[in-house]
Amino acid sequence: MAAPITTKVFICMLCSKMQFSRKLHKVSHLKLRRFITCQATKSKIVAVNAADEDGLQMGNSGHLKSHSGVFSNDRVCLPEELEKACLNTVNKYNVGNILKQAQSLSRYLWSRQAPVEENYFRVMTRDTERKIRKDDGVDDSRLGENERVTLESQRKGKMLNILRKHIYHWEPIEYDTYKGIVYLLGRLAPEYAAMIRILSEVKKREPLFVPRTLFDFGSGIGSVMWAANAVWPNSLAENFCADISADMNELARLLVQGGDETADECFKGVFFRQILPASAAKKDRYDLVVSAFSLLELASEKQRNEVIDRLWQKTNGYLVLVENGTNAGHRLIQEARKQILESNESRTTLEGVDANEAENSENSLNNMAHVFAPCPHDMVCPRENDGSGTPCNFQVSYQPLSIFKKDVSALRENIKFSYVVLKRGERTEESWPRLVRPSLQRHRHIHCDLCTASGQLERVILSSGNCGKTLYRCAKRSNWGDLLPIKLTKDAKQDIQD
Question: By 3-state DSSP, what share of the chain in percent is helix, strand and coil, each rounded to 5?
Answer without folding.
Answer: 45, 15, 40
